[in-house]
Amino acid sequence: MSDAHAHSVAFVRETEIPPSPPPASQAGAIKWMRDNLFSGLFNSILTLLAIYFIYKLVAGAFPWFWNGVWDAESIRDCRDILAERGAETGACFAVLVDRWDHLMFGFKYPQTEYWRPTLAFVLLLFAAAPALFYKYVPRKFLLFTALYPFIAFWLIWGGSLWLPLAILVAIIATGFVFRMVEGLDVNIRSILAAIVGLVAGIGLAYLLYQGAKELWFISNSVGSGSILTMLASFLFKAASVFMFVFFIPMGIFVGYAIYNDAEGGGLVTVVTALFALYLFVAYLVDPVAGAINAIIPIELQAVPSRDMGGYMLNMILGVVCVSLSLPLGIVLALGRQSNMPLIKGVCVVFIEFIRGVPLITLLFVANVMLAYFMPPETNFDLILRVIIMITMFSSAYIAEVIRGGLAALPKGQYEAADSLGLNYTQATRLIILPQALKISIPGIVNIAVGLFKDTTLVSVISMFDIVGMIRGPIQQSTDWISIYWEVYLFASMVFFVVCYSISQYSQWLERQLRTDHH
Q1: From CA 326, how far away is CA 190, in angstroms rounded?
Q2: Euclidean distance between CA atoms 117 and 310, whole angstroms
Q3: Which residues of 201-218 are buried (b: 16+ CB within 10 A; e: fewer)?
Q4: pLDDT tens, 395-419?
Q5: What 3-state DSSP class applies to 255?
Q6: CA-CA-CA-CA dihedral for 134, 136, 141, 142, to nearest 10
Q7: DSSP H helical segments within 183-222, as ranges?
Q8: Do residues 241 and 215 make contact, with C-beta atoms less than 8 angstroms apart?
Q9: What residues form DSSP beta bridges with 465?
Q10: What is the pTM of this model?
């Protein structure tokens, strides 16, 4: 009986048999190749064709790179060295060694001062880290990020240290003015709104009147030699007549809009702060900086903007324009959705006009025509003019990308902000804009990459960026005449490094902000 009972007890396994390894065709590189390269007949044919073309490309280009000459004084020396080696082909990379300084800094920037833009670039990495990697860098380092533009300006352009510091103090004082006006009593703010509205209305009317006169002058200067010039003259005359007719109504409308917004306080606060900033910069910054510098001189050798060049110029334009166009694009996107007809109309006209004009046209305007709208004998820096135009161009496109992000938000987000009792500013800052910007990251990065590459267009207005250096002083010199591939490949490489880094960062940021799948 006991034997039968013993045989009826089931076997209990105390250890597991280790799993068998998968077949070689179902794991590792072989599986990846079967799934991605040879998953079918058509894909296999395409893979083999791609491998063949890659082999031909590498086989043809490898000798050119491998036989490259790095030590030569001119292209003739490169050819002589290649002939001595018995090589049929080879790159002349010696041009990169010989003209490295020119490619990086231009041919006019003082050689003894190269350390200054180099240090500014290194500090840029430290200044960008707190803003780009905010989760991993303490917030207190944002103070250095805020100070960096003034430090970089002083390092690159030189001059007195007290000038950028005075501008910084003016900006801080403007912030105090903004907060002070924002906290005023409604009755006092109404009086201030009346004064500011009157000044702003008269100022705008005067500017429109002067602009109409300048447009009429330009229309008469264009001439009538061809159909295009006649059309341009007609358009300038039409714009001038329009501004002559509406400069007084526009001034009255703007002044009344500022006065009417006294209770809300947003418009009068912003306009008052802008007036204060203008007064500080126009009348106080230079005298104060000069007086302090006379007592405690801290100066670097001043370098004019016309001496900027090389890849340094591309970096300056790219970093400054991207940094400025993002907040301006946000303002334009919010303004386009505003319920105030004047603000919405101005933003719509600005965005649609800028998006309908090629960037190269705006650069020619910055180089040639922008001086017509300045007072006589005004020295308006060329780099500043180019920065203004490129920033305007990119901000219009960024505004449309952000507007798409705002439109993608469900209506419930706005209703939720209203239910919490938040006003427009609080709802936009805390709820609406963070979500819209997260949606808009791919589009913003795409515009930033395109903007950085478009900085090479400044070479068409005689600015010697890296492409201008290649097309001008390098290729037109007798030592490196008719050299193309080496210098343009180098320019492509340095642009690729920056653009690829921006793209990879945007993908990382999207993963960090992806909270809907956790």
Answers
A1: 32
A2: 12
A3: beebbeebeebbebbbeb
A4: 999 999 998 888 888 887 777 777 7
A5: helix
A6: 0
A7: 186-222
A8: no
A9: 310
A10: 0.81
> Residue ranges per domain, the chain?
29-66, 99-158+304-518, 160-300
Return d(Cα 496, Cα 504) in angstroms, integer.
Answer: 12
| Six token digits for residue 93 | 């990379």
CATH fold, domain 99-158+304-518, is MetI-like fold (1.10.3720)
How far, CA to CA in Å, does 432 sit from each of 188, 303, 471?
32, 44, 47
Tokens of 375: 């007072």
Mean of pLDDT values over 340-351: 81
Distance between start and end Cα atoms, the chain = 60
**333 vs 226, higher pLDDT:** 333
Whether the Cβ atoms of residue 430 and residue 422 lie closer than 8 Å to each other: yes
- Is residue 217 over pLDDT 70? yes
The pLDDT score that the predictor gives to residue 518 is 46
Residue with token string 């947003």: 266
Query: Which amino acid is located at 354 in the chain?
Result: I
Mean pLDDT of the chain: 83
Query: CA-to-CA distance for 56 and 44, rounded, in angstroms?
Result: 18
Site of tokens 């795409």: 446
Please tell me the distance from the alpha carbon of residue 466 to that of residue 451, in angstroms, as a whole number. 15
244 CB contacts (<8 Å, ≥6 apart)? Answer: 209, 212
